[in-house]
Amino acid sequence: MTSRSRSRIPGLSLLVLLVVAALALASCSGDGDDDGGTADQGAPSGSSTSSESGEPMATVTVTASPEPSGTGTGAGEESAAGDDACTVDDLSVTVRPAEGGGAAGSQYTEILLTNTADQPCTTGGFGGVSYVGGGSGTQVGAPAKRAKKNEVETFTLRPGQSAVQVLREVRAENYDDAECEPQPVDGLRIYPPNETRSLYAEHATTGCADDGVDLLVVEPYHPA
Questions:
Q1: Backbone dihedral region of 57: left (phi > 0), alpha (psi from -120 to 50 degrees) or beta?
Q2: Are the C-beta atoms of residues 86 and 121 closer than 8 Å to each other?
Q3: What is the mean pLDDT of each run of 10 residues along the chain (224 residues)?
């Protein structure tokens, strides 16, 4: 009996050792998986930080870049004549009847802008025109509309050269007084192309105080 008991103890001890070793290995394997999980979680976090601090900002910049381009286009239209665009400081204005005079119910007038500076300047496109009266520059009625023409050009005016714009004036007498509200006009307020300041030219006629009546239509400027 004694000899049998001694032979079983080493086997049991070996079994226990194997179980302990297996548990130890499982524990090590579990620790490795936890570390790996932590590392995996950390990597996306780091990637997200990099993306938020880099790529989205770059995307915003790229998306925003067309907006200044669009704005530039607007600015380009305003400065179509270039940095040397003619301003009111460079110009004098003359108003004269156009060749042919007029048609039934309307008359045609030429507005000339002459370069009085000592250096060339560029101009072109449509200018603004409106009737004024009362001896105070008070606008009378609606400003001129643009003719439906696409022949717009930019050109250079050397000192002494002129640009001309044709103004069509519908006669106020074509309208009933109640609709037109006739009012004396003593001149024209004239805005050169690409300008926010105006020139004045005497031009006695009759306008309509009601700005719902369109009497004036302008064509684009062209070299005289």
A1: alpha
A2: yes
A3: 46 53 51 40 36 33 25 32 86 93 87 97 96 96 91 94 97 96 98 96 97 96 95
Distances (CA, A) of 59 to 1, 32, 48, 49: 86, 39, 15, 15
Q: Do 209 and 156 belong to one domain?
A: yes
Tell me the residue range of the domain where 53 lies.
2-64
Q: Distance between CA atoms of 167 and 185, rounded to whole angstroms?
A: 15
| Within-domain flag for 79 | no
Residue that is written with structure tokens 């300047």 in the block: 121
State the Cα–Cα distance between residues 106 and 205, nearest whole angstrom: 12
Tokens, residue 197 = 């300041």
Residue 75 lies in a domain: no
**Tokens 């938020």 label which residue?**
52
The tally of domains found in the chain comes to: 2
